[in-house]
Amino acid sequence: MTSIKHLNTQSASFGERETLPLSLLNDFLYCPRRAALKGIEGIRSENKHTVLGDIVHEHADLPGYEVAKGVTLLRALLVWSERLGLSGKCDVVEQHADGSLVPIEYKKGKRRAFENDDAQLCAQALCLEEMFRWPIGRGAVFHAASKRRREVEFTPELRALVERSLTELRGLLDSQRVPPAIFKPACEECSLFEICLPKAVSEDSRAQRLARQLFQT
Ligand code: SF4
């Protein structure tokens, strides 16, 4: 097995093939329109949640490693998967004395489970498994607001969700079509809210539907 301390100088390169960023998978599961606005339209935006997220990631974004209580902690490790056409960065990867690897993802909020965060973490594990040819059974999300760690098991269902979602995400990007906005609770915390205008777009669609019905009768 390759020592994980020497890998940050490498980068993902699969010839001409363009890799998908790990974070776009998270965006896709949060909302396909969000992934399309970023991946097709190239839109980026900040709100208090992304700024807080950047602060939380500040330490983890500095490449390097340290050893504590027999565990090597590698920060900002570049990871990739040729099979999945995926690349990105792990905030922290722990390497334990028995050789096991545990990816850790930092999130700004309190301890709670989100499918998109778990899938992003699992995708990191799939990259690590391919890179090191070493099975990875679990990872963890560290929630900065509550300073608590939540263990995530990489079940067959979660692995299947990642693979299925990547196929759907590729299909969405290939289609070059941005799905219409549908207002939902997640919109309130979305950094693209001001650009996407989900309430206005949803209202507009409703008005168009009503107008169509009017002329059909
Ligand atoms: S504001 Fe809502 S509909 Fe628009 S991209 Fe964000 S989550 Fe999706």
Describe what this molecule looks like in 3D.
This protein is an alpha/beta fold. The chain folds into two domains: 4-179, Alpha-Beta Complex (Lambda Exonuclease, Chain A), CATH 3.90.320; 181-217, no CATH class. It is built from seven helices and seven strands, in the order βαααββββαββααα. It has helices at residues 22-30, 32-39, 48-60, 115-132, 156-175, 193-196, 198-216, and strands at residues 20-21, 64-68, 71-81, 86-95, 101-107, 138-143, 148-153. Strands 1, 2, 3, 4, 5, 6 and 7 form a seven-stranded mixed sheet that branches. Helix 1 packs across helix 2 (32-39) and helix 1 (22-30) crosses helix 5. The longest helix has 20 residues, at 156-175. Mean pLDDT is 85; it is low at 6-13.
Tell me the layout of helices and strands.
Blueprint: E1 20-21, H1 22-30, H2 32-39, H3 48-60, E2 64-68, E3 71-81, E4 86-95, E5 101-107, H4 115-132, E6 138-143, E7 148-153, H5 156-175, H6 193-196, H7 198-216
Parallel strand pairs: 1-4, 5-6
Antiparallel strand pairs: 2-3, 3-4, 4-5, 6-7
The structure holds iron/sulfur cluster.
| Major sheet | 7 strands, mixed
CATH C-level label of the largest domain: Alpha Beta
Helix/strand class: alpha/beta
Tally of individual domains? 2
Number of strands: 7
Helix content: 40-55%
CATH topology of the largest domain: Lambda Exonuclease, Chain A
Content of β-strand: 15-25%
Coarse shape: elongated
N-C termini distance: 70 Å
pLDDT < 50 stretches: 6-13
Secondary-structure element order, N to C: EHHHEEEEHEEHHH
Number of helices: 7
- Name every ligand kind in the structure: iron/sulfur cluster
CATH architecture of the largest domain: Alpha-Beta Complex
Radius of gyration: 19 Å
Q: What is the averaged pLDDT score?
A: 85
